[in-house]
Amino acid sequence: xxxxxxxxxxxxxxxxxxxxxxxxxxxxxxxxxxxxxxxxxxxxxxxxxxxxxxxxxxxxxxxxxxxxxxxxxxxxxxxxxxxxxxxxxxxxxxxxxxxxxxxxxxxxxxxxxxxxxxxxxxxxxxxxxxxxxxxxxxxxxxxxxxxxxxxxxxxxxxxxxxxxxxxxxxxxxxxxxxxxxxxxxxxxxxxxxxxxxxxxxxxxxxxxxxxxxxxxxxxxxxxxxxxxxxxxxxxxxxxxxxxxxxxxxxxxxxxxxxxxxxxxxxxxxxxxxxxxxxxxxxxxxxxxxxxxxxxxxxxxxxxxxxxxx
Length: 309
Fold this sequence. Notes:
It is a single chain. The protein is 17% helix and 28% strand. The radius of gyration is 30 Å and the shape is globular. It is α/β, with parallel strands linked by helices. It has helices spanning 18-28, 157-162, 170-180, 202-206, 213-216, 226-235, 257-263; strands at 4-7, 43-47, 53-59, 74-77, 96-104, 110-117, 125-127, 148-155, 167-168, 187-192, 223-224, 238-243, 269-271, 282-290, 298-307. It folds into 2 domains: 4-59, no CATH class; 74-100 and 108-307, Glucose Oxidase, domain 1, CATH 3.50.30.50. The strands form 4 sheets. A 7-stranded mixed beta barrel has the order 7-13-12-10-8-14-15. The protein has a 3-stranded antiparallel beta sheet with strand order 1-3-2, with no helix packed on it. The protein has a two-stranded antiparallel sheet with strand order 5-6. The relative contact order is 0.18.
């Protein structure tokens, strides 16, 4: 539709007034005066010979940017709480909350404040690529569009239940595709092992509650097989990957190959997720925002999913 003017109120047709003719002459001579004609929307107020004011508004001339759709549906929390029971890697310092104030002040009002301490890699958190890829993105450098998008959920909970060291394979991914279609470009792949229901029992969740290097040697939980990570990188285009265990590599891993493969391609990982059983194989929209730690190799993560009703 072309530009047109629309009066804000109706009026009888009448011959142009002196004011109208003057405005028209001024607008027509604007280029000669070295001025640019105003771009829509333009407003002109003209006083008629009877004293009435008519306001003209130019419409249909401004192209508006398209509105970005925001999904509607049920909001699912995919993060565990940070507290004294939060599970951390055996060599990482656990979460601590130190109370600074909690009570009525001398001014008669209530006031609460705390200090907290946490390692990067514990609780529900993000692994930035620099965690295993030197010179790659730290937490604050991860593009925001990698942290939100459409999710696919690959469910291997049946196999993981009978094998704590199960590794998600290329065959698992292809089996998902046979039912749901090819993994869409830009998807966030979430691996559901069912281990989140074992939280916060470290023995059940990690395979051991022992701390230190001795504990690392006794870890048992599912992860992503390096061959499957390599297949995703080579054959699909994903934004990020997540899992409901402590690591994208399985517990007994010594070389952390899936970490290294993915992070070399700047694909971050969300670890220690929960609530994946509430998500459909496709259709959920994920928002996973970490604490913006400059130079961080990881950070606490608040992840949520929007599931269409």
